[in-house]
Write a structure and sequence with these properties.
CATH topology: Rossmann fold
Radius of gyration: 17 Å
Order of helices and strands: HEHEHHEHEHEH
Largest sheet: 5 strands, parallel
CATH superfamily: Glucose-6-phosphate isomerase like protein, domain 1
Strand content: 5-15%
Number of domains: 1
Distance between the termini: 44 Å
Strand order of the largest sheet: 2-1-3-4-5
CATH architecture: 3-Layer(aba) Sandwich
CATH class: Alpha Beta
Length: 196
């Protein structure tokens, strides 16, 4: 296969998956927007976590909320739990890597805050621990997963929202996760500012 053919196939596969997700995921994404807007309107915050590419998605979400998405608006309270290297390394060293997000959720999270927990497999131990910590604080969890949802999907309860990409390949799941992040940001802005 030529390099151009490989690249073309990536574009086609990505587009096909996104189109296949519309009917299945639009409703749950809208539900996630409503959960996030309710928290922000009540002066609560969005906390986000994940590993690797999912850490980048968590940071992307927080940046769009604290800064802006496509329109000027007041800053919104959001924290990526992936960015403080001193906390991450201290907690990992003293308590183990599984606790790097959960301890931050327990330290900073309040009832009514929202945790956006991102794991393509749904089985990341530190993301699972963060979700459990959020639930113990009566914080709704918005889980972004793939591959059937894994243990994180099974952990979701009433008031939580599970956004599971129906695919097995990590890069394809991450591509849809980024689109979900943009949908969340756009939906939040539309709810707070009206349709543009």
């Amino acid at each position: 296969m030529s390099l151009i053919a490989r690249i073309s196939r990536h574009f086609e596969d990505s587009a096909q998956l996104k189109l296949a997700c519309v009917e299945r995921m639009a409703g749950p994404i809208a539900q996630a927007v409503e959960v996030a807007v309710a928290a922000l309107a009540a002066d609560r915050k969005i906390m986000a976590c994940g590993n690797g590419g999912s850490a980048a998605d968590a940071q992307h979400l927080a940046a769009e909320l604290v800064g802006r998405f496509e329109r000027e608006r007041p800053e919104l309270a959001a924290i990526a739990l992936t960015t403080d290297s001193s906390i991450l390394t201290a907690v990992a060293n003293d308590y183990g890597y599984d606790e790097v997000f959960a301890r931050q959720v327990r330290a900073l999270g309040q009832t009514g805050d929202v945790l956006v927990a991102i794991s393509t497999s749904g089985d990341s131990p530190n993301v699972l621990a963060a979700a459990r910590a959020a639930q113990s604080r009566s914080m709704p969890v918005i889980a972004l997963t793939g591959k059937g949802g894994g243990k994180l999907g099974a952990l979701m309860g009433a008031g939580d929202v599970h956004l599971c990409v129906p695919h097995e390949r990590t890069m394809r799941i991450q591509e849809v996760h980024l689109l979900i992040v943009h949908c969340l940001c756009d939906g939040i802005d539309a709810a707070l500012l009206g349709d543009a």
